[in-house]
Amino acid sequence: MKTTPPLSIAVLGSGKGSNFQAILDAIRAGRLNVRVACVLSDVSDALILERARQAGSPAEFVDASPFKTKLDGAGEQRVLDRLRRHGTDVVVLAGFMRMLKQGLLTTFAGRIVNIHPSLLPAFPGMESWKQALDYGAKVTGCTVHFVDAGMDTGPIILQKTVPILESDTPESLHHRIQEQEHLAFPEALQLIAEGRVRLEGRHTRIRP
Amino acid sequence: MKTTPPLSIAVLGSGKGSNFQAILDAIRAGRLNVRVACVLSDVSDALILERARQAGSPAEFVDASPFKTKLDGAGEQRVLDRLRRHGTDVVVLAGFMRMLKQGLLTTFAGRIVNIHPSLLPAFPGMESWKQALDYGAKVTGCTVHFVDAGMDTGPIILQKTVPILESDTPESLHHRIQEQEHLAFPEALQLIAEGRVRLEGRHTRIRP
Fold first, then answer.
1. A200 CB contacts (<8 Å, ≥6 apart)?
2. Cβ separation of A157 and B137 shorter than 8 Å?
3. Which of A123, A139, A204 has its CB closest to that of B161?
4. Contact assignment for B138 to A161 by CB distance below 8 Å
5. Range of B128's domain?
């Protein structure tokens, strides 16, 4: 696995970074041929930055203003500058709570990956585990996908399912979805690192 | 299992009736405590009627006019008459290609069951397996649900998942979904027959 050079990823996150931790763990376990070029956060005291520093990765707060819910304009330019400086093949969104806009989407077309806590196209948007419970679904899951200009609409790389139990609360369901996310995200990134993921329009083709 | 009287079901279908066959098979195998009160079809030469006759169940063509895509007005009244005459606890839609309207929905509120070839709320409507392939989903499945006035929106009883393979065509995916349907439909009906399914608003609660 280590014969090809590692894929260089930049991780963007706004919170705890539990998916980033799963990526770190997979790298250490030899399951993921990835190098963390940098971790960027729009939240100065986000735990994901602390995790990155402890792992020896460059970790930087990036002021995302002037916008509150999207990354555009000057904030986007600051992120783009850092991605270039650190040499980024693929941008990994790990709990990054802003919509990306055209500059990043164009510069990294087909090279931005996100994870979403539902089986898309079901339950896009916020708190998908609550949406699934409110709907009365009996199965949900998580989706790793490339990011496009829509809200959780980009080409899907892989999906993992999670049964919804009679006893589930939003918290218990969210926890079991996150367990699957922590498997799915490194697995999808390894597929990319191995050059096995090809984009065809809105489809991904995965080479066996 | 056979200590309680069987649940009396009327089956409505427009086509081959492969799900009806799966129900018959489950009854014969002793996995489903259900009596087929009657099979009704809006298509006079539908194979589902022939299957019913071979199984010794009352099988009747019902003229669904005056409407082409829904069951309403005089056609609905004809169906209601037959459901009453045959003593129906639960109405089972097995490939019935018309929307039900208010008369049936009110008379059999919470007692009409349908199966849909996707993990609802994803891919409602027609040819859901094609929709899933076109979207680029990596997982789909089937859903057994109570019928309400919407299109594939009613309370879900159970769902089964089907992975989408790189090699899938619409036909191969449809086939694997149908295999899961043939397990899911008898399983859901047996839950109802055992009195384990309770409706709470748009949720079902399944007693273990």
1. none
2. no
3. A139
4. no
5. 114-208
CB A4 within 8 A of CB A33: yes
* A159 touches B at CB < 8 Å: yes
- Predicted complex ipTM: 0.93
Q: What tokens appear for B90 in the block?
A: 């639960």
Q: Tokens 């059999």 identify what position?
A: B108
Taking the CB of residue B125, how many other CB atoms lie within 10 A of it?
Answer: 10
Both structure tokens of B65: 């006019």
Angle formed by the axes of helices A170-193 and A128-135, nearest 10°? 120
Encoding tokens for residue A44?
């100065």
Mean pLDDT per block of 10 residues along chain A (208 residues) reads: 81 97 97 97 97 96 91 95 96 94 95 98 97 98 96 96 98 98 98 97 95
8 Å CB contact of A202 and B141: no
Closest chain A residue to B133 measured between Cα atoms? Answer: A203
CB contact under 8 A, B139 and A155: no
- Check whether residue B81 and residue B27 sit in a common domain: yes
What pTM value is reported for the model? 0.94
User: Catalytic: A86?
Assistant: no
Q: Would you state the structure tokens that stand for residue B199, as one six-digit string?
A: 């409706």
Of A108, A140, A161, the residue at which a domain comes to its end is: A108
Q: CB-based contact (8 Å) between A150 and chain B?
A: no
